[in-house]
Design brief:
about 65% helix; mainly alpha; single chain; two-stranded antiparallel sheet; about 260 residues
Length: about 260
């Protein structure tokens, strides 16, 4: 594992940045393919993804910096070096949601349809992001005797925590989970209506993340024996179930209203 992909003159390109870029590009392409679900044009999708990216990356970095402030004390400019890794997914999710809500209102788009449209894109993009975490050596797992355990090179953060010890490749677990979620959501999207896919994404990802966090080894602080991400999952999963139920009832009410109008 080497976090550096290649050099262009004095510029160092890290695998984390490469995978993040791949995740964004593939996410955009999937959203463009699915754009008719939310009645959007290609230009609207591109603009929306840019807004979501800026809000998401900014929020993800902000949450990471707040959680790891000691790492940046006296190194102010390092806060902006996201190519060095250090993003908190749920921070990005919250801020991206705020940005998307504002965008949809201004464009007079259905927020729930847009969120469902973004479900497959988010899962696929996150898959690439987690592969980037693995190559970067962040978000690592705890020691394991499993034959697929991974030993990080000396001098890396995982090595400083667990010297020459095989660790769970927890980043790849989550990458695989996100790939499965992407396949499920992409298959069901054309068969769904309203915010059903958005709710299903929250349930599937929240459940997968809840389990995945038990294999993480990079957290120093736990709350009630749970990581911050797991605590958030206790909100995300019920919220996703509520969205699915609400969308189903709203779809049924719309069908009833249409039938009455037709009669």
């Amino acid at each position: 594992m080497d976090p550096i992909a290649f050099h262009i003159g004095f510029l160092t390109i890290r695998w984390y940045g490469v995978m993040a870029a791949l995740g964004f590009i593939t996410g955009v392409l999937v959203a463009v393919k699915n754009r008719k679900f939310a009645g959007m044009t290609s230009d609207q999708v591109y603009n929306m993804m840019l807004v979501a990216m800026l809000g998401g990356v900014g929020g993800a970095r902000l949450f990471y910096v707040v959680q790891n402030w000691e790492e940046f004390r006296g190194r102010f400019w390092e806060i902006f070096r996201i190519d060095h890794g250090g993003l908190v997914f749920y921070g990005g999710f919250i801020c991206a949601m705020v940005a998307l809500t504002v965008y949809c209102r201004r464009q007079k788009l259905s927020l729930m349809k847009v969120l469902s449209l973004l479900g497959p894109s988010l899962a696929l993009g996150h898959m690439f992001g987690r592969i980037g975490c693995f190559l970067n050596g962040c978000c690592f797992g705890y020691p394991t005797q499993a034959p697929w355990g991974y030993v990080y090179p000396e001098g890396t953060d995982p090595d400083r925590c667990y010297h020459l010890t095989a660790l769970h490749p927890v980043q790849l677990y989550e990458a695989a989970g996100n790939l499965i979620i992407f396949c499920v959501l992409q298959y069901l999207l054309p068969k769904s209506r309203g915010g059903q896919i958005a709710g299903l994404y929250m349930v599937l990802y929240g459940t997968m993340r809840m389990v995945d966090e038990f294999f993480r080894g990079d957290y120093e602080n736990h709350y009630l024996g749970l990581t911050p991400a797991q605590l958030l999952c206790f909100l995300v999963i019920p919220l996703g179930i509520a969205v699915i139920i609400w969308s189903g009832r709203r779809n049924k009410a719309n069908d009833t209203a249409n039938d009455s109008t037709g009669n």
